[in-house]
Amino acid sequence: MKQKTKKNQLKKKGWWISGVIVLIIAIGAVLLIRKYAVESFTENAFTIYIRPETTYEQLLDTLKQKVDKKTWLRFRRMSRLDDYERKMIPGAYKLDPSMSSVDVYRILSRGLQTPVRYTFNNIRTIEQFAQKTSSQLMMDSVQIMNVLRDTTFIHELGFNRETIPAMFFPDSYELYWTITPEEFFKRMKKEYDRFWSDSRKEKASAIGFTPMEISIIASIAEEETNDKGERGEVGRLYMNRVQINMPLQADPTVKFALRDFSIRRIMNKHLEVDSPYNTYKYAGLPPGPIRIPTKQTIVAILESEPHSYIYMCAKEDFSGRHNFAVSYAEHQKNAARYRNALNQRGIK
Question: What angle do CA 126, 265, 343 make, to 5 degrees?
């Protein structure tokens, strides 16, 4: 009987010990889950950029600067257990306080990128565009320029080397940081096609111009005036000149031909440049836009009211606006006032 009682006591003790062990394991599991799957990985949101050449150690160094030591060690333990070093996926990954260490590791190890906001405006040349784009996306400016020089590819998009600037619209876009140049150009072509809807094409046709011609005129109007409210009127003036076979004689096109945008006053020596963009020497529109025009200016021109102006001259108050004229005699008076203002300020 005593032996049986002793066995029962040992059995109960065994159950008790097992229960304690299970409880310890459960507590440990809860603590681990809390540390790895519940606690925030970071107090502040930040974005990690992983390039194809980024090493595992470089990634750890970046994280070490952004999160506390305990959190950094947790990530290192998980990544080493899963051999993450061998399967790092390039991309931009935004990490925020809502994420745990497990969430962060899942995002990085599976390549679940966060789209980045790509924005550009006020671009004159394709070279500037390539530099601006490369500063925001993983591709570099050389890759972009190589695509721009690939005549076969840009012809497939419906453009040539002179007209391709019209395909891009200054705006903000959601893109993956790792997008390739070819994918990027195709995305911009979709944006172009979306903007140039049938109704807008019909508006352009109704006033006697193609979408490309409207884009070229818009680019000149933007260079002519900083006053957004005046650009439709300026664009209509150049359309009037085209329609009566009058040379555009647009100073901004000469600056573009010379690739010197610092010129403040066009002189006779500037007009000697032999370029299809010199609208003093060559009649009609230049072969392509002289800057990347905005949607707003294109719309302003498409919706501009008809007028009879064929001359314009910057106002003598240097407000950035213009005096418009129908007759050359009236234009000469406006031009004389502006020249006097330039001379008074010593602008050459």
Answer: 155
How would residue 23 be classed by pLDDT, with cut points 50, 70 and 90? very low
The Cβ-side half-sphere exposure at 136, using a 13 Å CA radius, reads 18
The pTM assigned to this predicted structure is 0.84
Task: Say if residues 264 and 255 touch (Cβ distance below 8 Å).
Answer: no
The phi and psi torsions of 92 (rounded to 5 degrees) equal -110, 125
Q: What distances in angstroms separate CA 190 from CA 68, 183, 195, one per listed residue?
A: 44, 11, 9
Pairwise CA distance, residues 263 & 348, whole Å: 9
Length, in residues, of the chain: 348
R_g (Cα) of the chain, nearest Å: 33
For the cut 50, the answer to whether the pLDDT of residue 168 exceeds it is: yes
pLDDT digits (tens, 9 = 90+) for 235-245: 999 999 999 99
The contacts of residue 27 (CB under 8 Å, 6+ apart) are: none
pLDDT of res. 12 = 54
Here the tokens at position 278 are 């010199």
Phi-psi map region of 188: left, alpha, beta (phi>0 left; psi -120 to 50 alpha): alpha
Per-residue pLDDT tens for 63-104? Answer: 999 998 888 888 898 889 888 899 899 999 999 999 988 899
Tokens for 335, please give them: 């031009």
Q: What is the model's pLDDT at position 72?
A: 86
Angle at which helices 198-206 and 295-302 pack, to 10 degrees? 50
What value does the mean pLDDT of the chain take? 88
What's the rounded Cα separation, in Å, for the pair 166 and 284?
A: 18
Under a CB-based contact definition with an 8 Å cutoff, are residues 96 and 42 in contact?
A: yes
- Residue 313 pairs in a beta bridge with 323
Helix H, strand E, coil C: the string for 4-64 is: HHHHHHHHHHHHHHHHHHHHHHHHHHHHHHHHHHHCECCCCCEEEEECCCCCHHHHHHHHH
